[in-house]
Amino acid sequence: MSPRRNYPKGRRPKDEERDIATSNQTIEEHTDGDFIVRKITGSSSNKPYRCPGCDQVIPMATPHTVAWMIGDEDGRRHWHNACWAKRNNRKPNTERTRNAPRF
Ligand SMILES: [Zn+2]
Questions:
Q1: C-alpha 15 – ligand 1 centre gap (Å)
Q2: Where is the composition biased (Basic residues) (predicted)?
Q3: Residues in CB range of 8: below 8 A, 6 or more apart
Q4: Bridge partners of residue 65, in order along the sequence
Q5: Helices and strands (H and E) in the chain: how many
Q6: Beta strands in the chain (DSSP E)
Q7: Over the range 53-73, which residues count as b (16 or more CB within 10 Å of their CB) and which as e?
Q8: How far is the CA of 16 from the centre of ligand 1 (A)?
Q9: Could you tell me the residue ranges of all domains in the chain?
């Protein structure tokens, strides 16, 4: 008859204590490291950025993705959602290098 209640009631996940600015932030594992990924809504995008994926400008008020390697917040980049997803899907086995020299 030993008590099995090891879970105190009324305990809440810490996530609820975080402010709203980080609530849409996730960590993604990539082959070149772990990235912090934040989804930006159109209303919080108040200036244009250049996307490193396609080298096109992301107009202001456009929902997009901000990502940086953990510990390198200064190196964060703004990506189109689609460009970030493409980068994410890239795998060594499926990547085709069109410009690679052939023998
Ligand atoms: Zn892009």
A1: 31
A2: 1-12
A3: none
A4: 39, 79
A5: 1, 6
A6: 25-30, 33-40, 49-50, 57-58, 64-69, 77-79
A7: beeeebeeebebbbbbeeeee
A8: 33
A9: 20-89
How far does the centroid of ligand 1 lie from the alpha carbon of residue 55, in Å? 6
CA of 17 to the centre of ligand 1 (A): 33
**CA 89–ligand 1 middle distance (angstroms):** 14
pLDDT digits (tens, 9 = 90+) for 67-93: 999 999 999 999 999 999 998 776 555
Identify the sign of the CA torsion 35, 41, 44, 49: positive
Ligand 1 mean position, distance from CA 62 (Å): 12
Question: What is residue 78's three-state secondary structure?
Answer: strand
User: How many Å is the Cα radius of gyration of the chain?
Assistant: 20
**Residues 12-49: tens digit of each pLDDT:** 555 444 444 556 899 999 888 999 999 999 888 889 99
Measure 47 CA to ligand 1 centroid, in angstroms: 15
CA of 88 to the centre of ligand 1 (A): 13
